Amino acid sequence: MITEKLDGGNTLLHSGEVFARSASAPSAGKWMAMVKKHHAWKVREPDVYLYGEDIYGVHSIVYGAVPETETFYAFALRYADGAFAPFEK
What is the pLDDT of residues 23-50, one digit of tens each? Predict the structure, then answer.
């Protein structure tokens, strides 16, 4: 399977928190506001890690108007044992 790399920040959702640039502590950065507001609460299970791209801020590509609810694009799901969930075929 091929997925598209978006121009955003690598983001991890875990236990209702947002992690960026480090998985050791939740992000307190204001640039994570939309992901926290609209997506962090969706992943509350302590054994689930959802990785994605946060395109809320402008990085090097300007995407145009993006609704607040569509600023996070998931690309991988990992479990506490380290196994990644398979992509649907």
Answer: 788 998 888 888 999 999 999 999 999 9
Number of H helices, E strands in the chain: 1, 4
Nearest by Cα to 47 from 11, 20, 83? 83
Nearest CA to 5 out of 75, 89, 76, 57 is that of 75
* Residues 51-83 as b or e (16 or more Cβ within 10 Å = b): bbbbbbeeeeeeeeeeeeeebbeeeebbeeeee
CA 68 – CA 18 distance, rounded (Å)? 16
Token readout for 78 is: 């990992």
Residue with tokens 């875990």: 14
pLDDT at 14: 95
Q: Give Cα separations from 88 to 6, 31, 45, 51, 55 (angstroms).
A: 20, 31, 22, 16, 24
Q: What is the pTM of this model?
A: 0.84
